[in-house]
Amino acid sequence: MNAYSKNKVLLSAENIHLQYGEKKILRDVNFKIHDIVREGVHQGQVVALIGRSGIGKTQLFKTLSGLIQPTEGTVRIGEDQHPVKAGQVGIVPQNYILFNHRTIYRNLKIGLDNADVKLTEEEKKRIIEDYAQTFELTEHLNKYPAQLSGGQRQRVSIIQQVLTGNKFILLDEPFSGLDILMVDKVIQLLLKVSTLSEHNTLIIVSHDIENATAVADTVWILGNEDGKAGATIKKEYDLCELGLAWQPEIRADRKFVELISEIKKQL
Ligand SMILES: Nc1ncnc2c1ncn2[C@@H]1O[C@H](COP(=O)(O)OP(=O)(O)OP(=O)(O)O)[C@@H](O)[C@H]1O
Question: CB within 6 Å of ligand 1 — which residues?
Fold first, then answer.
């Protein structure tokens, strides 16, 4: 098993409740996301949020990113654990909207233009070219989104969020509509993003349990507990502790396959 330790809290939720009129959507959601130190790597956590359709994943996702205020409770972010504000968490939406009339280069530049740190045009160019090279997009920089495959567009969309300097990135169904090779590339990209900085934290909402679990170090199952109204994190799997995190080939592992079937039973 890998030696690792969990250090600072980067994102936390305390007693989150969300209700619309009489309808309770979320109940008593509590968690802490940390940075992780292991084998010379210092990284943020990668969490997979899994649950049945309509259970409240999107509502939790929006609460965590400050887009909606919970009825009760607080989401805290950063080393100083201040209450989250909209814009502090980057979102890669399901249909990864890019600006179709701008080249990939200019789409990536939007990320840097929106970053807190002000850079010269020359600095921006160098950063974009570096990222493009790392993520195999150099030959596509002057193309338009329509000329790229779905997986390539997805990668551009993820990198765009990374370039804004957002340390917290929520991804909504990042594997949908991708073939298996593209899924592998997106998984590699996500693993790379999570290790780029000790503060990079990813939360992946997905119906694709195998792939979301393969890239994650933590799995949260959102569901109803004991017939109570409102969904909560009814089970958390720590894949570091299970020895199933950070291994790209994990999907063929017997222990991993057993875990997936256990997760499915929890839904
Ligand atoms: N503004 C609202 N007012 C009342 N109920 C709402 C509102 N928005 C969402 N809901 C309800 O909240 C519940 C959770 O919805 P949510 O979209 O979070 O589910 P989900 O888990 O993301 O589903 P899916 O996997 O199908 O995308 C649903 O029952 C939905 O009808």
Answer: 20, 23, 25, 51, 53-59
